Amino acid sequence: MTSQEETRPRLEERAARTAKWLASSAPHLTVAQHWFEDHYRIELPPVQGADIAYRLMFDQGAYTLFAVPVADPDAGMFWHQTFEQMGAASVEEAEPQFREFVLDVLSHESRILQRRGLLFHGFACELLREAEWQRVGGQILVLRTSGRVPRIEGRTKEYRSPPMVTNPFQ
Q1: What count of Cα atoms within 13 Å lies in the side-chain half-sphere of residue 27?
Q2: pTM
């Protein structure tokens, strides 16, 4: 049995647990699960009028929430936040933090800010909490010459999504 064959059932189990959790916290969401060469991905449908959609990725050492532009979901590099094993006995120990973060993002109006600099494109995620935008997660920097970044007119672009989950666990 190859390493990939050993890994797939573990990743499938992690993705299935998360899909079940999503179904209990947001039963109105229809999620799509996909197996790729080395990871599982859960795709969440964009909310009507949203500029971004969210995806959850499960690979051997991490859980990742990432956003994609609805107009160009294959645009390449964009904002993401990863939860890794980092000193834990197993990657599963990062699962509760990952779920809490995902629920926080999905239950607020969110925006991804893309800023074009001299050498890099920067991406940051902000949530609207009590009428104020607050940054969550880290800022992602991508070299402008990578060619895998959504093109923008001007120096900044804002992508938005209404909340996807309005009453989690109700």
Answers
A1: 3
A2: 0.86
Task: Give 48-84 pLDDT, tens digit per residue.
Answer: 999 999 999 998 888 999 999 998 887 777 899 988 8
Q: What is the dihedral of CA 74, 78, 83, 86, to 10 degrees?
A: 110
Tokens of 88: 């834990």
Give the other-Cβ count within 10 Å of 165's Cβ: 22
Cα–Cα nearest to 124, from 43, 67, 75, 76: 67
* Nearest-angstrom CA–CA distance, 120 and 145: 8
Which one is predicted more confidently, 147 or 18?
Answer: 18
Pairwise CA distance, residues 63 & 40, whole Å: 10
Question: How far is 99 from 26, CA to CA, in rounded Å?
Answer: 13
- In three-state secondary structure terms, 87 is coil
The pLDDT tens digits of the residues spanning 98-115 come to: 999 999 999 999 999 999
- The burial of 98, by beta-carbon neighbours within 10 Å (0-12 exposed, 13-18 middle, 19 or more buried), is given as buried
125: enclosing H helix or E strand: strand 120-129
Q: Who's near 153: CB < 8 A, 6+ residues apart?
A: none
CA gap 74, 53 in Å, rounded:
12
Q: Report yes or no: 124 and 136 within 8 Å, Cβ to Cβ.
A: no
